[in-house]
C-alpha cells in the first residue's frame, strides 16, 4: 500500500513539474518573438538557410539571389502584418482582462451580500486578495513566504 501511495505521489510531482516546464517554454518563446521584432522583424527569425537549400535543391547562384530578393521585398509587408496582429492580440488581451476584472467585482459584490460583514472581513484575511494573483501579505510582510528553516 505504501508503495502505491509513493508511486502516485511520485507520478503527480513528475506530471506537475512537466506541465510547469511546458509553461516556461511558452513564456520564453513569446519573449523570443518580442525580442526578434526589436532586432529586425519576423523575416530574420524565419530566414531560409540558403546554403543548405542551394545544396539540397541544387540551386544556381541566380536562383539564390532571386529568392533572397523576393524575401527582402516581402519583409516590410510581413513585418507590418505581424505588428498589426500583435497589436490586435494585445487589445484582445486587455479587453479580456477588463471583462474578467468586471466579473470579479460582480462576484465580490454578490459575496458581500451573502456573507455578514464579520464573515466577509474574515474571508478577506484568510484568502487571496480578490482580483490579485498573489496572496495577501503575511504578518504585514510583502512578497513570497520565506524558505523553510532546516
From TrEMBL:
Residues 1-19 form the signal peptide. Residues 94-150 are annotated as: Disordered. Residues 94-110, 118-142 have a biased composition (Basic and acidic residues). One of its GO terms (cellular component) is periplasmic space. Keywords: Signal. This is Uncharacterized protein. The lineage of its organism: Bacteria, Pseudomonadati, Bacteroidota, Sphingobacteriia, Sphingobacteriales.
Amino acid at each position: 500500500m505504501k508503495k502505491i501511495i509513493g508511486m502516485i505521489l511520485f507520478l503527480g510531482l513528475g506530471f506537475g513539474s512537466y506541465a510547469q516546464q511546458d509553461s516556461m517554454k511558452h513564456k520564453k518563446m513569446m519573449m523570443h518573438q518580442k525580442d526578434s521584432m526589436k532586432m529586425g522583424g519576423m523575416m530574420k527569425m524565419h530566414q531560409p538557410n540558403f546554403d543548405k537549400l542551394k545544396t539540397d535543391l541544387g540551386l544556381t547562384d541566380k536562383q539564390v539571389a532571386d529568392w533572397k530578393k523576393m524575401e527582402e521585398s516581402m519583409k516590410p509587408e510581413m513585418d507590418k502584418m505581424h505588428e498589426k496582429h500583435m497589436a490586435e492580440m494585445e487589445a484582445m488581451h486587455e479587453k479580456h482582462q477588463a471583462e474578467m476584472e468586471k466579473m470579479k467585482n460582480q462576484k465580490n459584490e454578490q459575496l458581500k451580500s451573502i456573507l455578514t460583514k464579520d464573515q466577509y472581513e474574515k474571508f478577506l484575511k484568510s484568502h487571496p486578495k480578490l482580483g490579485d494573483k498573489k496572496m495577501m501579505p503575511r504578518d504585514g510582510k510583502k512578497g513570497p513566504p520565506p524558505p523553510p528553516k532546516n
